[in-house]
Amino acid sequence: MSPHPRTAAEVDRLDPARALLAGGTDLLVRRRAGHQGGPLADVSRLRDAPAPVRRLSDGSIWLSALAPLSVIDRELGGKLPGLRAAIACFASGQIRNRATLGGNLANASPAADGVPPLVVAGAVLRLRGPAGRREIPVTEFATGPGRTRLAPGEWIENIDVPPQPAHAGFRKIAGRRALAISIVSLAWTWDRGPGGALTGVRLAAGAVAPVVVRCPGAEAALEGRAPTPDVVAAAVAALGHDISPISDLRASAGYRRAALAGALTEALTPALTEAPARRNT
Amino acid sequence: MKVNGVPVTPPDPDARLLDYLRDDLGLIGAKEGCGMGECGSCTVLMDGVPVCSCLVLVCQAEDADVTTVEGLRRTALQEAFVTGQAVQCGFCIAGMVVSASALLAEHPDPTDEQIRAGLEGNLCRCTGYGAIVRAVREAAR
Ligand SMILES: Cc1cc2nc3c(=O)[nH]c(=O)nc-3n(C[C@H](O)[C@H](O)[C@H](O)COP(=O)(O)OP(=O)(O)OC[C@H]3O[C@@H](n4cnc5c(N)ncnc54)[C@H](O)[C@@H]3O)c2cc1C
Ligand code: FES
Ligand code: FES
C-alpha cells in the first residue's frame, strides 16, 4: 500500500479506488467478512485535521468528521444535547474512542445513530475532493442504505451545525443498552413559544425507512400548539404516515411503528406536564 | 509506536494491531473473541484510551503509545480479580482488566453504574459480571 495521506490536500489527490479508513469500525468489520478488500488510505491521523469541535461567533458549531465520537462528546460540553445523547448510547466505549461522524454518515445505514440528531439540527456537510469543495445538507446526503451523494474521491471534512433551539434529545430503542443496533431511533428539537406552544419542531427517525427521515406530518401536528394529550395523540397518528418501516431480523414493521410512537410520546411527556402547570400559575 | 513503553518497528503496517501484538511481539494477553468490535477481549489502551485492537491497523497506531494487559502497573486491580474470584475461563479477563484500568484512571471511586458503563464493551460468557463489578469496586478502595 502506498504511504497514507498526512494532510487534507493529500487526501484530495488520492486515487479514488482507495477507500478511506477512519475509525475502521465499519470498514474493518466488512473487510474481515471478505468485503471491500481493496487498498485503504488511513485518514485518522491527518496533521491538519480540523479541530474536533469549533464554536463560531455566530453561534454555529463545526464538528470534525474525522474525530472520534468520544472526543466530540467531551469537547461539546453542554452543547448539542441531542447528538450527545446519541453518542452516549452508541456502541461501546472502545468503539466510541475510534468511530467518527464522517464514517457514520458515509456508511449511510438507516440505523446510524449519529445521523438523526444532525438531521434535526439542520446540519450541512462540508465536502472536499479532487474537484474542490462543496456543501450539502445532511438531509440530501444519503440516497439509500450504503449509498450517498459523495462523488469519487470526495470526502467529508466538517459538519456545520447552525444555532439550535432550546430543547433537543435522542431516544434509541434496541435489544440491549450497549453494543446494539437501533431497532428504531428518534431525534427531536423544538422551542417553547408563548403559552407553552411548541415552535420550530423537527423530528427525525432512524431505521424506519431506507434512509434517516424527517417526519413532516408529526412535525406539523405539533407546530404552534401547546402539547396536550390530544395534540400528542394527533402527532403520533401522523407519525405513522411519515415512515415506511420493514420487518427484518431485528424487529417487525409493526413493532417499529409501535416503538417509534412510544418514543415520540415519551419525548413529549416532559413538555406535557410542564404546559398546564405554567398556565395555572 | 511504543508498546508497553518500548519503541517498536512493526514490519507490516497493514496488519491488525491485535495480530502484531500477539504474533510478532508474543503479547498474548489480548485475545481474539469476535474480531469485529463486539466482545472487547482484544482491548488495549491506545494513548490511554481503550480500543479494540482487532479494529485498528498497525499504520493507524504508528505514533501511538499502546499498553496491553502485560504493561499495566495496576496490580491491586489484578489481585482484586483473583482474590474476588472474578475469573472463570479467563478469556475475557485481559480485556476486562484493561477497560477497568482506564475506568479507574478516570473515576478513582466509581459507582456501580460507572463500573458497568466502563465495562459495557467487554463481554463475559462465564461470570455473570457480578464478581467482576465487585472486584473493580474492591480495587478502587
Ligand atoms: C461493535 C460495533 C458496534 C456498533 N454500534 C453502533 C451503534 O450503536 N450505532 C451506530 O450508528 N453505529 C454503530 N456501529 C457502526 C460504526 O461504528 C459507525 O457507523 C461509525 O460511526 C463508523 O465510523 P468509522 O470512523 O469507524 O468509519 P470507517 O469504518 O472508517 O468507515 C466507514 C465508511 O465511511 C467511509 N468514510 C469514513 N470517513 C469518511 C469521511 N470523512 N468522508 C467520506 N467517507 C468516509 C469509509 O471509506 C467507509 O466506507 C458499530 C460498529 C461496531 C463494530
Ligand atoms: S476480538 Fe476485538 S472486540 Fe472481539
Ligand atoms: S471468564 Fe470466561 S468469558 Fe469471562
From TrEMBL, chain A:
Key words of the record: FAD, Flavoprotein, Oxidoreductase
Top-level taxonomy: Bacteria, Bacillati, Actinomycetota, Actinomycetes, Streptosporangiales
Source organism per UniProt: Spongiactinospora gelatinilytica
Transmembrane segments: none
Gene3D superfamilies: 3.30.465.10, CO dehydrogenase flavoprotein, C-terminal domain (3.30.390.50)
Domain of life where this protein originates: Bacteria
Pfam families per the UniProt record, alphabetical: CO_deh_flav_C (PF03450), FAD_binding_5 (PF00941)
Signal peptide: none
Occurrences of domain FAD-binding PCMH-type (ranges): 1-166
Record's protein name: Molybdopterin dehydrogenase
SMART domains according to UniProt: CO_deh_flav_C (SM01092)
One MF annotation (Gene Ontology) recorded for this entry: oxidoreductase activity
Keyword Nucleotide-binding: no
InterPro entries: CO_DH_flav_C, CO_DH_flav_C_dom_sf, Diverse_Substr_Oxidored, FAD-bd_PCMH, FAD-bd_PCMH-like_sf, FAD-bd_PCMH_sub2, Mopterin_DH_FAD-bd
TrEMBL record, chain B:
Pfam (any one): Fer2
Domain 2Fe-2S ferredoxin-type stretches: 1-72
Protein name in UniProt: (2Fe-2S)-binding protein
SUPFAM superfamilies registered for this protein in UniProt: 2Fe-2S ferredoxin-like (SSF54292), CO dehydrogenase ISP C-domain like (SSF47741)
Species of origin: Spongiactinospora gelatinilytica
InterPro entries from the UniProt entry: 2Fe-2S-bd, 2Fe-2S-bd_dom_sf, 2Fe-2S_ferredoxin-like_sf, 2Fe-2S_ferredoxin-type, 2Fe2S_fd_BS, Beta-grasp_dom_sf, Diverse_Oxidoreductases
UniProt keyword Cytoplasm present: no
UniProt KW Iron keyword: yes
Superkingdom field: Bacteria
Molecular-function annotations in GO: 2 iron, 2 sulfur cluster binding; metal ion binding; oxidoreductase activity
